[in-house]
Design a protein that fits this description.
238 residues
Length: 238
């Protein structure tokens, strides 16, 4: 009896083109990395030198300076006094009108800071009348007196003749067509600032609104600036 054996071939798994593509990409990537590592051992690497110096800026043209730099950066600030006009304006101010009973003086309106106070005010009308206004700030006294008293001539460093009221220095204020000068009188023991007015090419006290004196111990610059501003803002009433 004859036995016949049938051999059945095992089917092979078909190859995938997608798998080949992936393997090819990986192979190329690994080859590129290998070439890069190899080149790092043979090729020199240059770096920029490190320095602590900062390049100096190039000067700009005039038109660029005016557009890009603020005035505070190119103008040296001027030293300000102890009391600037803006500081005085920031103060609160009172106003008072004094009516003169005398034909030899003018009525006036005065503005003074609220840091000053009225210590005394007198107004005596009629023949032989007078007015007296006294303002105080601490130990400092500012007085305005209208009374028929003998006046005094004033002299300064440029004066040819020394007068009863002699001043080593002064400050000027202009009222209408007249000039006022105030300074520290060298006469007497008590420091007194007196105001004189120009009359016939010379100066004398009183002024159009009366005798004006500022006196006190240790008068600081702030008070002097306020005094100057008070004088500037006096309104003479015809």
């Amino acid at each position: 009896m004859t036995t016949t054996t049938q051999v059945i071939p095992v089917p092979t798994k078909p190859s995938s083109s997608k798998a080949k593509t992936v393997l090819t990409f990986i192979a190329l990537l690994l080859f590129g990395v290998f070439i890069g590592v190899l080149a790092s051992f043979f090729l020199p690497i240059t770096t920029a030198p490190v320095t602590d110096e900062i390049p100096a800026p190039q000067p700009a043209a005039d038109s660029e300076i005016s557009d890009t730099i603020t005035p505070e950066e190119i103008i040296t600030p001027i030293p300000t006094p102890t009391a600037t006009p803006s500081a005085l304006l920031n103060l609160r101010w009172n106003m008072m009108t004094v009516k003169s009973p005398l034909t030899t003086f003018s009525s006036y309106r005065i503005y003074y800071p609220t840091t000053w106070s009225i210590k005394e005010y007198k107004n005596t009308p009629g023949t032989g009348g007078s007015t007296s206004l006294t303002l105080t700030k601490g130990l400092t006294t500012l007085s305005f007196i209208q009374q028929d008293l003998e006046g005094s001539a004033c002299s300064y460093p440029t004066s040819e003749i020394k007068q009863n009221l002699d001043f080593a220095s002064y400050r000027e204020i202009f009222h209408n067509s007249s000039t006022w000068r105030w300074g520290l009188s060298v006469n007497g023991d008590s420091p007194t600032y007196i105001v004189c007015q120009s009359q016939n090419n010379s100066f004398s006290s009183p002024t159009t609104v009366g005798f004006i004196n500022l006196s006190g111990a240790n008068i600081d610059n702030q008070t002097l600036e306020e005094f100057n501003y008070i004088l500037e803002k006096i309104v003479i009433i015809p």
